[in-house]
């Protein structure tokens, strides 16, 4: 059978001692889980004697197979041993044993998670449509299509991407209000008094055991108990087949609190596509609330990367985005409003609904960019929305390396010396602003300054030369530090940035030519996402945990940047202008009166 489905999420399970990929997908209102047991985990091994290395691995390590492959290592074609394992856990268990083999110099790509490896190797992009060919089955492990509202398809062919077009997703925002008379809410004793929900499919309400005044609208859904409140929340998600659930600080507060209260009250939060409960997965320095096939996005984390503010409260972010004040109730007074009833209770209901409506508006403003980043990076939206910008850029490069036949370097670690060196980089040129009120200013701004420097000067670790050189004409040599980069061939990272910038310029031309407002919006989101990735690339050269970390590259980029901005200011002075402020990639100037 053949079905066109939209991929939402991915994981893997173990069946008969083998890893099985599960792709949580949808076709309209149908929930479809694709099963693929054909993919195997692997890593690459470097050795001076590949044949000897293959024999040593076979004799000492439990592998499915070893084979000799030609891949690129910093653009130089190199023989590697590709070692394939039965299960990702076997790969992880044998990493140290592999390193200890006498013929092994280094192992590579051992730390790429299995599900991410699958997405890259099979060119499957989450949140996009694919054609799935396979056999429909009734059950698989704890999934049962006759008991659960799902279809299960065991793939017989590799997935094929369908020509892209904007996907519409069912989005629900939610927020909890808690009665907290003793200060910080304690889930072991402080009850949930309201659950607000807002959506892009018509459900907008506050679920509570109390109700508001008749003249304040009928948006309150009154139930008999806190237990019924949580059950009604679960029912709304299931009945409306939600694709994306968003909250604000929901990783740290709402979902952990809801899970605790649900457990105390005996309610199942079985809102995953396979009716699984919430799980908390380590992402960065904190835990992220995850559901199978229901994508949870915490907008608090997104907004910390989306804009630069002094604080990131929902009220502050909403005002910055929309220029409107939202209803606010001090957290330590929520219980007083609840207990007092009357006008204050009405205000609390209004506040609860305003919270989720505001959160939904922020989601509708920012999710398109995150969806586009998901498409470009090729990793799940759940992960992308929690990645720092440097991580997003790195996974994009890892994906591009696969398609270029390049084996990615290992992370170099982050010892104190690395961090101290990184802090020594002078950074971009800044001229403090001239105090006063200025009129008739001109602005000069470089287009994509640092990405352009990386491309034009071919700044990349694989073409960098630290020793003596014979002919300076064959190199780009950075000012101040004299770091040398071959003019050819084009380095890996400059080649990737060059491609994506050309794609951005193509999209911007397409925007100008388009007469379709919807297409213009979609294209604008695409070019913004590409711009963010490109502008991130230069900064992560100086981050010691970056796979392509190079402090020399980071220094060279900023030194050329300072040179360009200073020379531009000097050139402007020749025409009678003088700069009153400069920062990294541009400056403001006034005309000097005689």
From TrEMBL:
Catalytic activity: DNA(n) + a 2'-deoxyribonucleoside 5'-triphosphate = DNA(n+1) + diphosphate
GO biological process annotation, one example: DNA-templated DNA replication
UniProtKB keywords: DNA-binding, DNA-directed DNA polymerase, Nucleotidyltransferase, Transferase
Gene Ontology molecular-function annotations: DNA binding; DNA-directed DNA polymerase activity; nucleotide binding
UniProt-listed InterPro entries: DNA-dir_DNA_pol_B (IPR006172), DNA-dir_DNA_pol_B_exonuc (IPR006133), DNA-dir_DNA_pol_B_multi_dom (IPR006134), DNA/RNA_pol_sf (IPR043502), DNA_pol_palm_dom_sf (IPR023211), DNA_pol_type-B (IPR050240), RNaseH-like_sf (IPR012337), RNaseH_sf (IPR036397)
Residue span(s) of domain DNA-directed DNA polymerase family B multifunctional: 394-574
Class of enzymatic activity (EC top level): transferase
Endpoints of the signal sequence: none
E.C. numbers: 2.7.7.7
SMART domains according to UniProt: POLBc
Domain spans labelled DNA-directed DNA polymerase family B exonuclease: 106-317
Family recorded in the similarity comment: Belongs to the DNA polymerase type-B family.
PANTHER family: DNA POLYMERASE CATALYTIC SUBUNIT, DNA POLYMERASE DELTA CATALYTIC SUBUNIT
Protein name from the UniProt record: DNA-directed DNA polymerase
Taxonomic lineage: Archaea, Methanobacteriati, Methanobacteriota, Methanomada group, Methanobacteria
């Amino acid at each position: 059978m053949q079905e066109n489905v939209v991929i939402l999420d991915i994981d893997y399970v173990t069946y008969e001692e083998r890893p099985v990929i599960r792709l949580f997908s949808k076709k309209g209102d149908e929930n479809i889980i694709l099963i693929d047991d054909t993919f195997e985990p692997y890593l690459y091994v470097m050795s001076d004697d590949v044949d000897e290395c293959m024999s040593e691995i076979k004799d000492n390590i439990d592998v499915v197979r070893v084979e000799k492959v030609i891949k690129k290592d910093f653009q130089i074609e190199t023989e590697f041993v590709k070692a394939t394992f039965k299960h990702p856990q076997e790969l992880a268990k044998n990493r140290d044993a592999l390193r200890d083999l006498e013929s092994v110099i280094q192992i590579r790509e051992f730390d790429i998670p299995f599900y991410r490896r699958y997405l890259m190797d099979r060119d499957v992009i989450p949140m996009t449509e694919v054609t799935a060919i396979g056999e429909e089955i009734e059950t698989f492990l704890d999934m049962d299509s006759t008991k659960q509202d799902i279809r299960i398809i065991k793939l017989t062919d590799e997935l094929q991407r369908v020509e892209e077009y904007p996907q519409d997703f069912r989005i629900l925002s939610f927020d909890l209000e808690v009665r907290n008379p003793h200060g910080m809410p304690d889930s072991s004793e402080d009850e949930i008094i309201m659950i607000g929900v807002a959506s892009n499919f018509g459900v907008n309400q506050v679920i509570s055991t109390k109700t508001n005044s008749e003249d304040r609208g009928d948006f309150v859904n009154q139930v008999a108990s806190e237990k019924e409140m949580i059950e009604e929340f679960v029912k709304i998600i299931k009945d409306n087949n939600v694709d994306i659930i968003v909250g604000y600080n929901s990783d740290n507060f709402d979902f952990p609190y809801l899970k605790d209260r649900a457990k105390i009250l005996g309610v199942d939060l079985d809102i995953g596509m396979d009716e699984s409960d919430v799980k908390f997965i380590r992402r960065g320095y904190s835990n992220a609330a995850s559901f199978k096939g229901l994508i949870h996005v915490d907008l608090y984390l997104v907004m910390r990367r989306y804009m630069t503010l002094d604080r990131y409260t929902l009220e502050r972010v909403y005002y910055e985005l929309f220029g409107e004040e939202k209803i606010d109730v001090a957290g330590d007074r929520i219980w007083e409003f609840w207990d007092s009833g009357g006008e204050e209770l009405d205000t609390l209901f209004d506040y609860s609904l305003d919270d989720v409506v505001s959160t939904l508006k922020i989601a509708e403003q920012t999710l398109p960019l995150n969806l586009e980043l998901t498409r470009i990076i090729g990793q799940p939206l759940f992960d992308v929305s929690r990645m720092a910008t440097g991580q997003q850029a790195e996974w994009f490069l890892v994906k591009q390396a696969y398609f270029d036949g390049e084996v990615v370097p290992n992370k170099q670690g982050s010892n104190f010396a690395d961090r101290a060196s990184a802090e020594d980089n002078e950074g971009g040129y800044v001229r403090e602003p001239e105090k006063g009120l200025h009129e008739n200013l001109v602005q000069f701004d470089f287009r994509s300054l640092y990405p352009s420097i990386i491309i034009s000067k071919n700044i990349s670790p694989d073409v960098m030369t630290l020793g003596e050189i014979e002919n300076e004409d064959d190199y780009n040599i950075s000012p101040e530090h004299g770091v040398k980069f071959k003019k050819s061939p084009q380095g890996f990272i400059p080649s990737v940035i060059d491609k994506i910038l050309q794609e951005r310029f193509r999209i911007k031309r397409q925007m100008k030519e388009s007469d379709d407002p919807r297409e213009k919006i979609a294209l604008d989101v695409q070019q913004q996402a590409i711009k963010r990735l490109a502008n991130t690339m230069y900064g992560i050269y100086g981050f010691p945990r970056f796979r392509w970390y190079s402090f020399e590259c980071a220094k060279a980029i900023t030194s050329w940047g300072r040179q360009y901005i200073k020379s531009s200011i000097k050139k402007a002075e020749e025409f009678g202008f003088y700069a009153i402020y400069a920062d990294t990639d541009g400056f403001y100037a006034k005309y000097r009166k005689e």
